């Protein structure tokens, strides 16, 4: 864990240096597409001396000056499976974005969706040496959190303080400068499979780029798709991607849980291809043009031309009714939602004061999804689009760009993490595991 702590610190310094120079690239490495956005920071957006143990901030003083997407290759379930193909796709996206922006970038901040994320809620407390809370006290209380044994080959992706308590006062965002005797902290830690991170690092280095930050797609999708009230009162963001469906839960403007389901829109496409015995490209076209989840009487009569160029005239002239297409798509989408529901239950989502669920990601555009999701996940479901950020091309404003836009906001205003503080060297604890969400009921 010490190594990763140092790596994360080094990436944080690189991000600061890139922002000082004024440009940084954002890379969303997904299963179905790779998106690259290039941000330019103006003078006011330069990093402040102290970022604050702050929650997420809104639109910063940055503009998007370049944007490009390319079809993803060599990525399955959000993880790299064919290095050379992914490297080619990343190079294509980055070069196209650089050409549009007319600048060269050396540093990227990346997000990815796979790697089997696991959430932990940790707690720690200390006696204050002086009555005023200092930066060192915050570092000490973070290091006093009981860190679980993450298991072989696991690495920490996020480790964020989400709540501080000073004596009997809880729910503090930033305790520095306040007076008290005993400081307690709750921290959310997200661990992922280390090999997946190493592969992504290696791929980005092979593209002659430096990695200046890493984030979970589920986290940044929530940052861009949940409105401020939802982040404050409690909400879940479900990001339906191509290969995975990411899930993040926010409360008091902090992420307190993340997980992912290894199924997404590509599985629906694959079901259509198998069910109708057509190529994947044709299945994808039919899904986006004619797909749906709720059949009405009209759909029996609506016939879809399959089209094709197999050379078999009868096979290429086939038609299917829209009802038949819906019959193939619906069971898989139900399965994805049921699996997500199970993860929400494990997370204790029902204990939150608000049960708002926001669906985003490219897969959320299937007509009828909100009605089906409301039935499976609970009543309060809405479809979310990412926040508008300056300079974003019209083509990149849809829900498929939730994680890319969220990553822009994350790059400009990262929430403080464990490695932003000078943790005493002797304190890399590996003690008992505390169950996530315990402090929910106690503190809020």
Model description:
The structure is a single chain. The radius of gyration is 23 Å and the shape is globular. It has a domain at 119-191 and 421-443. The protein has 14 helices and 18 strands. With 444 residues, the chain is an alpha+beta fold. A hairpin with a 2-residue loop joins β13 (245-251) and β14. The strands form 5 sheets. The protein has a 5-stranded mixed sheet, sandwiched between helices. Helices cover 36% and strands 26% of the residues. The chain has helices at 2-21, 83-101, 135-143, 194-206, 217-225, 228-233, 265-276, 280-290, 297-301, 313-316, 322-347, 369-377, 402-412, 438-443, and strands at residues 23-29, 33-41, 62-71, 75-76, 79-80, 107-112, 118-127, 154-166, 169-172, 182-193, 210-216, 235-240, 245-251, 254-261, 303-305, 319-321, 356-360, 381-383.
Helices and strands, with pairings:
Layout lengths: L1 H20 L1 E7 L3 E9 L20 E10 L3 E2 L2 E2 L2 H19 L5 E6 L5 E10 L7 H9 L10 E13 L2 E4 L9 E12 H13 L3 E7 H9 L2 H6 L1 E6 L4 E7 L2 E8 L3 H12 L3 H11 L6 H5 L1 E3 L7 H4 L2 E3 H26 L8 E5 L8 H9 L3 E3 L18 H11 L25 H6 L1
Parallel strand pairs: 1-6, 6-11, 12-17, 17-18
Antiparallel strand pairs: 1-2, 2-3, 4-5, 7-10, 8-9, 8-10, 12-13, 13-14, 15-16
What's this, in brief?
It is built from 14 helices and 18 strands. It has helices at residues 2-21, 83-101, 135-143, 194-206, 217-225, 228-233, 265-276, 280-290, 297-301, 313-316, 322-347, 369-377, 402-412, 438-443, and strands spanning 23-29, 33-41, 62-71, 75-76, 79-80, 107-112, 118-127, 154-166, 169-172, 182-193, 210-216, 235-240, 245-251, 254-261, 303-305, 319-321, 356-360, 381-383.
